[in-house]
What does this fold into?
Amino acid sequence: MRHELFEKCLLQNNFTTDFAKVEAFRIVRDHGDKLIGAGLLNEKQITLEVVKILPNIQRFAGTYTSFTTNDSCGGMVGMGNSPNIEVLANNIHGTEEFAISTELGIKGFIDASVEVTTRHPHGIQGYPKSGNSTRSLMGIELKTGHNQTPQHAHMAQLALYTLALRTRYGSVVPNNVPPTDCLEGASDGGMLLYLNQESLNAVHVSPDINELKSLLNQRNVVASELRRASSPRGVTIEYDERKGDSLKEKRYSALNVFLACSIYPYMN
It folds into this structure.
């Protein structure tokens, strides 16, 4: 529900308390069956709990977007080999966008994709810092849990989403040309955003070629195991009538196994 409130505020460019309360009430109503199943029956109290995240949503908007009065880039610390970067979101491209790459066999839903202006604080690829910046499409992966420490699984998830965006929209190429009104492609990194009612932590995830190779190798392992697990399993009975023999020989095959009843493979 916090995810949905964040997306609603982002899509409408509205981060006011009145708007958030109305949207939070609607979101709680939409999830009424799940809340009742969980034994949560106090609608007013649940709505207030959802709205508690609003101050940090407003803080995010004031730091990383131009939707308010902000016109300066907000800094993000790079994780691992990812560089530090300054970013300012200018427009919302979409929320829950279906990112798919048929070439690489990956797919998923990106929490938010935004049109951003980015600038490396120490220059691009070792060149001196300048005022030049790049316009690109960047994915945002939102995590609203209590743990605000960046996790490897979350970084891998965002890295694959970033790769899917680059496959679909093309890769942005850093240059010395001032930003234009049109996008130059998808960014080589994304924003991993940890946001709850207590704190806000945005980090930059930009996988290098070796990290991408490792992720795709893991993808291939998973795909191979899924294919193997989905192959038929069980026992088949074949009848072979031999010439000159009135009896039929029953052959039991342990290979090419398949039961008449449906068998679903068990996965680890």
Observations:
- DSSP finds seven helices and eight strands in the chain.
